[in-house]
Each structure stands twice: as C-alpha cells, then as structure tokens.
Amino acid sequence: MFGRRRFEVKTAGQLQRMREAGLVVAQALTAAARAVQPGVTTAELDEVSASVIAEAGALPSFLGYHGYPAHVCVSVNDEVIHGIPGPRVLAPGDLVSIDCGAIVQGWHGDAAVTVVCGGRTDDASARLSEVTEAALWAGIAAARVGATIGDVGHAIAERVAAAGTGYGIVDGFTGHGIGSAMHMTPDVPNVGRPGRGPRLVAGMAIAIEPMITLAGDDTDTLDDGWTVVTTTGVRAAHWEHTVVVTPAGPWVTTAPDGGGLADDVALASFG
User: Which residue in 8, 16, 129, 220 is deepest, having the highest Cβ count within 10 Å?
Assistant: First the structure.
C-alpha cells in the first residue's frame, strides 16, 4: 500500500471510495456556496454543509480534528484559512473561502472554493479569486506520473506570477497527501523548482491548495488557535481540490466532472 518513500499508493477500489468522498465534498461546497448571501452567518454555512454530508451517509473530516469545532472552515476577507464558523454576518462584497472534507468508508476528500457574497465585489478581490483558481488548475495539470512535487509548486507560482505583480503566495501552509487520512505525506508547497522533490507515481493522491493574497505572504494566527489571517489585513483567496495521479492524467476526485477525466477512464487506467 505504501511506496518506497512511505507515500500511500491506492488501489482502484480505494480510489473509488475517494471519488465517492470527493463527490460528497463537491455537493457540500456547492450548497454552501449557494447559501453565501448578505445577512447569512458563517455558522449557517456550516449547518448547510453538515446537512449535505450527513444526508450522503458520509462523515465530516474536519469536525473534532485536533479539536476543530465545526464541519467546514469559513474564512472571510483577510482570513486565509481555518476560519471557525460562528455568528459573523456576511456583508455584500465579502470574499468567502469555504474548505470542506468528507470521509466515505475511511477514505477522504478535501476541497475549497472562494465565492463573493452578493455576487459583486471590488475588481481586485474578484481578480484575486480568479488568479487563485487558475493557479490551482495549473498545479493540477502538472500532477502527472513521473512529475515531481516541485513541478506542481512551480506551475502554481508561475501562474500567479503571470497574473501580474502584487500577489503574495502564503508561506508556511501547503497542500498535502491524502487518502486513508486527511493529512499525509508528501507536503505540496505552492512554490517549487522543476524536477525537485518527491516523484509522483500512479495511485498517489494529493490535495493541491494555493492560498494567495493581494500583497505579501506574512500571516498571523488569531487567539482561537485556528484562524490564519494576513498580517497586513489584505484579502486572501483559497482554492483546493483532491487530485489522484493516474496513468491517464490527473483525476480530480472533488470536481463533479473529474477535472475533465472520466471516472471509468481513470479507474481503467490502473488495469
């Protein structure tokens, strides 16, 4: 089950469970994103997500994880990641990042989206979310058999750089391996050098998750011990998908369309 460097390599059957978990995550994020409206609290977004996960017969990855008290993370404006849902009321133009994980028969899916409350925000914030999502897909495209973790991080950073000056790639937080646990080796940084780092093999799964700000990479953690914010108060965006490395290409288990790779093709590529 584990490769030479202790990276978890899954069977086709295990990957099918991960796909099921990923689809639950996709459904929960879609429901929560639709619920992002002025006057809604972040706790209500957690309730929406929790309901979807429960109705699917899945378990939440986040609730109780190292004491985390909610089903999802909801991070608003200058909050980068790990925002705890609560009484905060969303306002028009808020930039809202929602991170969700689910478990099906012991196998995990993990993804995040950033949405605008009320549908409109300032141009810089809208562009920030677009750049972050584009960087995510650049990293996904690099996640192929024979590539390295450095190739993935390099693709993310190059896409951010191509978007223009001023953006910051958050330092100190990375993507990660995923499968029978939510966080596993290897770490997946959002910067990297081509050809460096662990090599990707078929059956590995990684969560790729760029966290980009409107300026700088410095962060602080609030007194709640979870919420990570930008030190200067600028806004941040967070996008994430769970990606399986297959002989047929990257299979995005938390995207409804598999990231463009059909489920049957992905699974058949393992023989």
Answer: 129
